[in-house]
Amino acid sequence: MIDSASNLLGEISRPELLKHHSYINGCFEAQSENIGKTAETISVTDPATGRSIGEVHLANENDVERTIATASAALGSWRSMLGKDRGALLRCWGALMIDNREDLARIMTAEQGKPLEEARGEINYAADFLTWFAAEAERIQGDIHTPHKPDRRMLVLRQAIGVTAAITPLGWLALTHHLLPVRQYLLAV
To answer: How far apart are CA 131 and CA 87, in angstroms?
Structure first.
């Protein structure tokens, strides 16, 4: 039986999945907004033993602002991408989560202390969301509604309109941290 986070983390086959830095502008950054200055970190502890199992970047307001700015800059290319192509990317993301389910579940269990089987289920659940939203991306359509006046037409266009920044709870980590941006984007489309 696996009894500690260090045992769990020692058994992952792809240690590169364990990230310590913020993902900003297409890469995991070890630096803060000031070039050359090491970013502030916080310790991640094994809930079973209280021992540190690693450190993660502590994002600050400037990191959030930079993330929003780079996401806003990328919005144009995402917006111009065909729905089927956005769907393909989301399906690929979901498939990668399933392909790496065991390692991701072990990382989540080490960080949060939740049972391994529950973590596996959460990865499955999050991947299912990606698959569902991939199909929705392929079906993005507009609507024509009955107008309130005879000389008017009401046309609804669904399109990406902007970037969403959100603070999410840690209870369902795979769902809230990995998929909330996808949900916000597709719900706004």
So the answer is: 8
Report the C-alpha gap between 161 and 137 in whole angstroms. Answer: 15
Helix (H) or strand (E) holding 76: helix 61-80
- Rounded alpha-carbon distances, angstroms, from residue 64 to 59, 157, 171, 176: 7, 29, 21, 17
Q: Are 5 and 49 contacting, i.e. CB atoms less than 8 angstroms apart?
A: yes
Nearest to 20 by CA among 54, 53, 52: 54
Three-state SS at 156: strand
> Rounded to an integer, what distance in angstroms lies between the CA atom of residue 154 and that of residue 148?
9
Q: What is the mean predicted confidence (pLDDT) over 71-91?
A: 91
- Reported as a single tens digit per residue, the pLDDT across 33-46 is 544 455 688 888 88
Rounded to two decimals, what is the model's pTM?
0.76
